[in-house]
Every structure is written in structure tokens, then in C-alpha cells.
Amino acid sequence: MATTLKGSGVSPGTGYAAAHLLVGSIPEPPKGAVHDGDAAAEKARVQAALEEVAADLEARGERAGGEAAEVLSAQAMMARDPGLADGVDELVDAGVSGERAVYEAFGAYRDLLAAAGGYLGERVADLDDIRDRAVARLTGAPMPGVPGDAAEPYILVARDLAPADTALLDRNLVAAFVTEDGGPTSHTAILARAMGVPAVVGCAGATALVQGTLLLVDGATGEVVIEPEPAAAQAAVATARARAEALSGTSGPGATADGHPVPLLANVGGPKDLEAALANGAEGVGLYRTEFLFLDRADAPSEEEQQAAYRAVFDAFPGGRVVVRTLDAGADKPLAFLPPPGEEPNPALGERGLRMFRRHPDMMAAQLGALARAAEGTEAIPYVMAPMVATVAEAAWFAEACHAAGLETAGIMIEVPSAALRARDLAKVVDFFSIGTNDLTQYAMAADRQVAGVSELQDPWHPAVLDLIALAAGAAGAAGKGCGVCGEAGADPVLACVLVGLGVTSLSMGAPALPWVRASLARHTLDQCRAAADAARSAPGASEAKEAARACLTGLGDLGL
Ligand SMILES: C=C(OP(=O)(O)O)C(=O)O
Ligand SMILES: [Mg+2]
To answer: What range(s) does the Phosphotransferase system enzyme I N-terminal domain occupy (predicted)?
Structure first.
């Protein structure tokens, strides 16, 4: 019988082909290796190798273009990082050989990134790739990489994939990606989605697979079947194709089967995500996570740089709504230049989001100023919202600051239970709500988003979370204001119907989910969505809520949901 490995599905679709294991990890240069005594020459040799690596990454990016070009030029910047070069020089000055110095200096930096976790932690694969490329150049070993000359489609299996590996892959030859490491925000996931290649990450046991083993990969469920029964595998691929056709058959603005409009918007991290948002028919942006502009750098971006990034996003949606969230630093998104004021035993409950602006009002003024200038003369409809709002006073303070900066439409995220519980008071001082179900679930269930051991509790289907959403959406509706959802819950095509039934007025999600949610809403009436919402809220737990909602949603079948 076929065995199955399980990981996280991060790019939907089905692939069936032979595994190609990415080997070629570079051996660790021996501990204690020393150079011949000429430190200056050794430093120059290392510097030249790092520069060659950076230039090669850039050249690959230029050949690949699009999103890959941005990712690879960011990686090239890492290779030219002066801090890393200083670390290498120090070791070489102490006699360490160039390749060993690269290995150790990168290792120290790697530990820092890994400890930071979240987005930064997932840059570790990029850093390791630079290290391996530099060591390969210094020792004359062959470069690590993917097959450039495959004749048949294959499934690329690796510990993790660096952007340089994936950038030049031929989409027609890669049936799927499977990686042992990596999370939903790793580069494997981001690039797989951009390429439209099915992908499973965090798949334990993947790197122990034998080269050439036939695999059936489901990029939605995260299942990787080893040596599946060929007829069943071919049928799965055919079903996936039929499903993709059903999806592409639903187009236009989001609406239920009986015509209740539900604008479908995209979550973006910056201009690089616009292509996918537009390609998937986003009607606007429901969450622009501006902190991505602030990550991976030593200083805050200038007002001009911010203004240009915001303007690029506004310009992509003339006539559409663009909801920009002000900086959500802290907890899972730490910023090097804005450390918390002291030790935070629970960063998720610490100084993050809008709370940080209380201590740095200058940063808020700079961001709102840049936003106001970017909004001048735009044809988009600019909305601005603050993350992590817990009280009416915070919401009123933020709305006033937006208005003073010349930004008309100011809202807040509802992601703290206190905000959902007292939404009727908050609705008096802001123009709209956007529910962040990721954090709302974290705080309602007291289950840290970053702690894998409690991930079962991190389920937005839990009726306690649904009750909070109903409270917020109801309060917004009573005040005549909009209430969207921009957390991951909105990307679940079944839960999306429930959210609409709870009174949510728009849904925002990562671009690849848009066709699924559009198709799912189009197959159900508003009454069915309301019935599903009532059934889910009446259930005692998350799995029962899901089951009860599904029983009310009769149109899921032809989407294979
Ligand atoms: C959308 C949300 O914000 P983030 O995931 O960026 O914290 C959320 O918390 O649901
Ligand atoms: Mg949040």
C-alpha cells in the first residue's frame, strides 16, 4: 500500500511525477583550518568570492525577471552585507581560512535569524545558500543547484529551496515542490504560488525519499503519496484539472449566488505582490502589510521611499479600495531598529502594532504623512487602519491622527477580543473595521501563533472566535459601517461563506485563494451563508462547527471542497 507523507500545502494544485532530490549540499570546511599567513590576500579572495556570488544571483534574477528578480536582488544584498564581511575579516585576521571564516561568520548570523523566527527566520535558507555558493567558489567544489537539463517533468524535493534554485526553473518541467523545512512565508511558498506550481513545505521525511520515486503531491492538503496506484494518481490529476476549470469559470466581482455583493480584495506585502493580485481578479487591496517595507534593514525607510511604495499599490487599483495598515512591528514581526523597550516575556502581549506608535509618534507621523502624499491625486480609494487596537481611546487617537494628516477614511483592525466585545463603542470613532482572524484567534484561544504545540487551538472555526466576529460585524452593521475580514480565515472557501453569513461585508486574502472564494460564494445564497453561520455558532467546537456549516453549503461538491 502507498505510504503518505504530510506537510503544509502552500500552493494548491496536484502534481504526479518522479522525485528529483536536490542534493549538492556543500561539505563543511574543516574546523581549525588556517590560511597561509597572508590575511590581506585571503580577505581579498573571500571578498571576490562573495561579490561573484552576489553578481551571479543578480544575473539570474535579471534573466528570470518579475518577482524572482526582486527576491534574488534582496539575496544579493545579503551577500554584500558589510556586517557579514566584517565578521569574516575578523576571523581571517585571526588566521582562520577563508572558507572556514565564511562558514562560521554566516553561522553566527544564521543563529540570529533563526532565533528571530517568523519572516526573518524563514530567510535562513537564503543565507545558507549564499554561504554554500561562496564556499563552493572558494574550494572549487561544484555549485549546488537544480537540474538544468531534465527531459521529463519532475517533483523537486529538497530540504528547503533558495530563490536562486527556483528562479530559473522551467514551469513546464516542475510538477510540484516538496520541502522538508520551510513555512507558509518561506521563499519556496512565495515563489511556488507566484509560479502556480503545487507545493508542500514542512514535510517531514521528504529528504529521505529515494531519487526517482513516483510521488503524488496535493498542494492544498499537504499530502505527498509515495508510489501511488498509477490509475488513481492520474485520476487525481484529472480531477484537479477539472476543478481548476470550474474555478476559472467564475469571474467578476465577488457575490453570493443571489447577487449579494462581497468585494474580494487581496492581502499584499508591497508592490511585488500586485501582479498576482491583479491576475486573480482582486477588486482592491484589503490589507497592505506595510511592515514588509521595514523588515531586513538597519533603518526605517525614508518618507520618500515609503511614499513611492504606497503610491505603486494605489496606482494598481484605480477606482478600487486600498486598505493600508500602519506598521505592525513587534511579536512575530520584530524590527531591528525598533526593539521593545525592555525584556518582553510574551511579545504577542507586548508593545506591538499601534502600541509602538505611542512611544514613537514620530514614526506614526512619518508614515501617515507619506500615505497622505501618496494618496494625493490617486484614483484609488485610500483607507488607513491600525493594528492591535484594544481600546476606544487608542482608536480615537489613531483616527484623529489620520484626519490631521489629511487621510479621510480611518479604521482599525479587530484582532483583540476587547475590541470585538466593545465593537459598538469603537464603531462610533472609526470609519470601518477589518477583522484580523489570525490574531483574534490567537488571543481568544490564548494560543500563541508561533508555538507549534498549540496550533490545534489556533482554529478560526472555533465558535468562540465566530461569536467575536459576529459581535464586531453586527456592531459595524448597526452603525452603517463596513466590516471586512483580512485574516487567513477569509481564504478558506467554506469559512468565507460563514463569515458572510455572520455579516462580514468584504473579504481579503492572499491572491491565490481569490478564485476559490469567488467560486464558493457564487454557489451559495446569502440565506445559505446565514444558515451555515448559525449552524457553526451553535456547535460546541471547531470541527463540529465546520461540519455543521458544510451541511448547509450544498455547492461545495463540484469545487472538490
Ligand atoms: C491579518 C492579520 O494580521 P497579521 O497576520 O499581519 O498579524 C491577522 O492578525 O489576522
Ligand atoms: Mg494581526
So the answer is: 6-123
pLDDT tens digits for range 342-388: 888 898 999 999 999 999 999 999 999 999 999 999 999 999 999 99
The pLDDT score that the predictor gives to residue 25 is 64
Question: Reduced to 3 states, what is the DSSP secondary structure of residue 214?
Answer: strand
Rounded to the nearest angstrom, the distance between the alpha carbon of 314 and the centre of ligand 2 is 22
Quick check: 202 pLDDT over 60? yes
ipTM: 0.99
CB of 460 closer than 6 angstroms to any ligand 1 atom: no
Superfamily of domain 3-23+145-246: Phosphohistidine domain (3.50.30.10)
From 119, 265, 415, the mutation candidate for ligand 1 (largest count of ligand atoms within 8 A of CB) is: 415
CA 558-238-174 angle, to 5 degrees, is: 120
What CATH class does 251-559 carry?
A: alpha beta
Residue 256, all three cell numbers: 453570493
Give me the architecture of the 39-139 domain, per CATH: Orthogonal Bundle (1.10)
Percentage helix, strand, coil, to 5, in the chain? Answer: 50, 15, 35
Spell out the domain ranges in the chain.
3-23+145-246, 39-139, 251-559
Sheet of strand 3-6, all strands in order from the earlier edge strand to the far edge:
3-6, 223-226, 214-218, 14-21, 154-158, 174-179, 199-201, 8-11
pLDDT tens column, 268-307 = 999 888 988 998 999 999 999 998 888 878 888 999 999 9
**Nearest ligand to the C-alpha of residue 388?**
2
Return the C-alpha cell found at 193.
504560488
Q: Widest CA span of the chain, in angstroms?
A: 79
56 is in an annotated binding site: no
Strand partners, 289: 325
Atom of ligand 1 nearest to the CA of 387: 3
C-alpha to C-alpha distance for 224 and 6, rounded to whole angstroms: 6
For residue 492, what is the enclosing H or E element?
none
Closest atom of ligand 1 relative to the 267 alpha carbon: 1
> How is residue 483 written as a grid cell?
466590516
